[in-house]
Design a protein that fits this description.
By secondary structure, this protein is α/β, with parallel strands linked by helices. It is built from six helices and ten strands; from the N terminus they run E-E-E-H-E-E-H-E-H-H-H-E-H-E-E-E. Bound molecules: adenosine-5'-diphosphate (ADP) and magnesium ion (MG).
């Protein structure tokens, strides 16, 4: 198992009130698979993804990624794991506004151990002709392409996408999903993606449905649908 989460719990306390956000999550994903997490807002999806990505820590339970038990890492170890092994794509692209497209990617490549070539990843996301543009000169879909290029340039073991199409229109969303599928095929990157859109689940190998801090259903798709054939 590439990702092996078991009995993961997390709660937040504010004042007297304790909010159990993850109530004993189990989630497994094989290398090179695409996993999709579905569920209503507030069900704990981002919290779960942030713990798997080393942005946050659980209270109890185990999170093992590629043989590494994240609880055994100290803060520096967790930072190194997050920087070296994980690519993140968020709903709002988080590009650095005063750096060009190329520079946004190069700053990540420069701190990576075995980065891919910047021009190669720009070509993979079909943004090579916009290399010298600034983020404000791009559409939302183009900015998301750049943020995907930035996430994959470090050649991550795992790509975590938190509602990557949440701010995009239909056609642009489809092209971004197609691109994520291509990244999975071309680089063998394992992908875990959060989405509100149940139709997207057809492209995933495993689908996890969350509700109130629990995984209430898991579906294994023995055949998946290529992203370009999915419509909703
Ligand atoms: P989702 O991504 O499914 O919408 P989240 O994981 O973001 O859900 O949040 C799940 C619950 O945890 C929500 O009730 C949210 O208010 C709470 N929560 C998330 N992060 C924090 C935090 N840093 N402090 C307090 N509560 C939080
Ligand atoms: Mg969320």
């Amino acid at each position: 198992m590439f990702i092996d989460v078991s009995n993961l719990k997390k709660s937040y306390t504010s004042g007297e009130i304790r909010n159990e956000v993850l109530k004993g999550i189990g989630l497994k994903l094989n290398k090179r698979e695409i996993g999709v997490i579905l569920g209503p807002s507030g069900s704990g999806k981002s919290t779960l993804m942030n713990i798997i990505g080393g942005i946050d820590r659980g209270d109890s339970g185990k999170v093992i990624v590629d043989g590494v038990e994240l609880n055994n890492l100290n803060d520096d170890g967790l930072t190194e794991y997050r920087r070296g092994d994980i690519g993140f794509v968020f709903q709002f692209y988080n590009l650095v506004p005063n750096l060009t497209v190329g520079e946004n990617i190069e700053v990540v490549a420069n701190i990576s151990k075995l980065p891919l070539n910047t021009d190669e990843v720009l070509a993979a996301v079909e943004m090579q002709d916009k290399k010298n543009r600034f983020p404000r000169e791009l559409s939302g879909g183009e900015q998301q392409r750049v943020s995907i290029a930035r996430a994959i340039v470090k050649n991550p073991k795992l790509l975590l996408c938190d509602e990557p199409t949440g701010a995009l229109d239909y056609q642009t969303s489809r092209s971004i999903l197609k691109l994520l599928h291509k990244v999975n095929q071309k680089y063998g990157t394992t992908i875990l993606m959060i989405t509100h859109n149940a139709a997207i689940a057809a492209m995933a190998n495993r689908v996890f449905r969350m509700r109130s801090g629990e995984i209430v259903e898991e579906v294994v798709n023995h055949t998946t649908v290529p992203a370009e054939r999915i419509e909703w």
